[in-house]
Design brief:
Order of helices and strands: EEHEEEEEEH
Number of helices: 2
Helix content: 10-25%
Structural class: alpha+beta
Oligomer: single chain
Radius of gyration: 12 Å
Low-confidence stretches: none
Distance between the termini: 32 Å
Largest sheet: 6 strands, antiparallel
Length: 97
């Protein structure tokens, strides 16, 4: 599987940070704190905890009228696989509210 370049944003961070993480289901679940759910915005895929609201996780941000709670991961996609995030940090900053 290898590592992919992602943006991770926690609720207490203003914009998040770019890092490299292992592209495994277990690692993605550990990072968001639960079973993963994906929301796609063109080339960008947001990975979040599918039960974040039920767990009462803190509001994180809004992207294109979708509110996210808890830690989120921004990635790209290639077919059925996750890939490096397709945005620069300035592109990411312009998306989140």
């Amino acid at each position: 599987m290898g590592k992919i370049k992602v943006v991770i944003k926690r609720p207490d961070e203003e914009v998040g940070h770019i890092t490299w993480i292992s592209n495994t289901l277990e690692n993605l679940q550990r990072t968001v704190g639960g079973y993963i759910e994906t929301v796609t915005f063109g080339d960008l895929v947001i990975i979040c905890d599918e039960e974040g609201r039920l767990k009462g996780k803190e509001h994180n941000c809004r992207i294109e009228n979708v509110d996210f709670v808890g830690t989120i991961i921004g990635v790209g996609s290639e077919g059925d696989s996750f890939s490096d995030v397709p945005l620069s940090m300035s592109g990411w900053k312009s998306l989140i509210r």
